[in-house]
TrEMBL record:
The organism's place on the tree of life at top rank: Eukaryota
InterPro entries with a match to the protein in the record: Glutathione-S-Trfase_C_sf, Glutathione_S-Trfase_N, GSTL1/2/3, Thioredoxin-like_sf
GST N-terminal domain: residues covered: 98-179
Gene Ontology molecular functions: glutathione transferase activity
Family: Belongs to the GST superfamily. HSP26 family.
Signal sequence bounds: none
Protein name: GST N-terminal domain-containing protein
Cited Pfam families: GST_C_2, GST_N_3
Lineage, broadest ranks: Eukaryota, Viridiplantae, Streptophyta, Embryophyta, Tracheophyta
Gene3D superfamilies, per database record: 1.20.1050.10, Glutaredoxin
Amino acid sequence: MRPHLDIFGTCVVANTLVKQILFVINVTNTLVNISRWALTLSWSSLARTATNPAHERGQVQYSNVSRAMACYVTRSNMIEQLPSILDASADPPILFDGTTRLYVSYTCPFAQRTWITRNYKGLQEKIKLVPIDLQNRPNWYKEKLYPENKVPALEHNNEVKGESLDLIHYIDENFEGPKLLPEDPTKQEFATELLSYSDTLNKVNFFAIKSKGDAHYEVGVAYDKLEEALAKFDGPFFLGEFSLVDIAYAPFVVERFKPLFSEVKNYDVTKGRPKLTKWIEELNKIDAYTATKHDPTELLGGIKKRLGLNEGPQCPLQDVWQGTQLLAIDVAAATGLIKRARTSDELTEKEIFCVYAKCLARNSVYNNS
Ligand SMILES: N[C@@H](CCC(=O)N[C@@H](CS)C(=O)NCC(=O)O)C(=O)O
């Protein structure tokens, strides 16, 4: 009988053990579920704080936490299905029907500024993106919507507004979402200065890329100014925290100038500029921005083609065109002088010398070719 009792006893102990293990598993499961539920509750209430219109939020101000959450909300919305591009054959949307629309081109850096602003503020649902084919624009765009016929343009409250720098301010001030300009007056003043400098930087850069020399000096001065500006406040961005200023510069510097200078002029704009390097690194962590990036090969290919940089570094076609223009000026000047000489208008010695020198130069060019 004893062995039978032992087996029975062992079975009872095993049964109790199994029950205890099951109990522990159940309790753990319940705890996990409770914490998940609590987490969802706090995320969604924070998300609501960050994305609801100001009047729904009442007096709620954007704290650091809600600001961070807004990014989270924006991030989750980033998996946005981008609408197809409208070309000349496309019908217009029902204009001025109360829908807020942002007209862009996926490759336009000016439009990209407004698109990043919209994304960062979590306005993907509120502001509908309407991409336009700039090479084959629909007529209704100019005729019925925006006579300037450029992108970006914003259709809002029965009005159409343009100009990227005005629009990013407008979107920031008239829509909900995290504020993209700090309250601090010193920072605001600096923002105004930097936003106006962005146009200068663009001109200097495009000019330098098109020029035949290396242009490192002029461009270097401009990027030193940016490096200096990035050191003014504590943080990787121009005003410390991410703002409209970063949005104004990012599409140009990160995706266009930096790779273009590197490829066309063999010049690394970030070399010896650690703050600029860090700024680019940090920008590339912001989904509201990265979601607007375009395929770099296609983007740079398009710009090089427009700037006439595709024929190689010396661009012979451009040389020929410039030469032809110079020749035309010479011919016009010479014809003028001949006419004056024929009407017995006295030419100065200098004028005669000029004609003579030009003839000599022309002959030597022809003889050498
Ligand atoms: N100053 C304007 C410039 C906008 C602009 O030049 N957009 C270009 C595309 S990147 C455009 O629409 N070009 C068409 C055209 O000039 O006909 C802004 O900041 O919004």
